[in-house]
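Q: Give me the 3D complex with zinc ion.
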Amino acid sequence: MPQPTIFLDRDGTINFDPGYLNNPDAVRLIEGAGAALKLLKDAGYLLLVISNQSGIARGLITDEQVGRVNSRINELLEQFSSVTIDHFFYCPHHELFGNEGECDCRKPGTGMIEQARTRYEIDIKNSFLIGDSVADVLAGHNAGINTILVGTGNGSEHISVLQDKNKLPNFACLNLYESAKLILKIKSGASAC
Ligand SMILES: [Zn+2]
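A: Here is the predicted complex, encoded as structure tokens.
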């Protein structure tokens, strides 16, 4: 059976974003993030992170450091909320750095969502993409997934950029916890935020 899925941005959505996060000891979860993910997991959603990590192409962080930060996020989620992310996908590229040139996985590209779809059977129609940036919302639009922009991270600034582009998200919520509550409300058949 195809699984409804929550595609999650990582930095600024689940954890605070100090910029090119490379130290697992510096990981701080955003308030309510663990509780939000637990609600969604218990409601039957697959939890997949899709994260742009251009710090790798820029030579500022390594794949190994990204892996350690991801492990630390799951460790904290498990410890405080008894939930874990099912899989972390990330794009290590940036078109201006490294040898790869332009890739299809860097959001707003849909490559990470496509990777997820080769690995998992996903019910796209009942899935959501939650993030704090223009690239997240556009990736959701490009993949035909409902988008929620959170107000944490870059969210409060990026909403006006999206408005100018006429690419508003389907929903805007204060944070990941409010997003989870909204999704459960929609799932139960209610219509409004
Ligand atoms: Zn990429």
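A quick observation: The helical segments are 33-42, 63-81, 111-119, 134-143, 155-164, 176-187.
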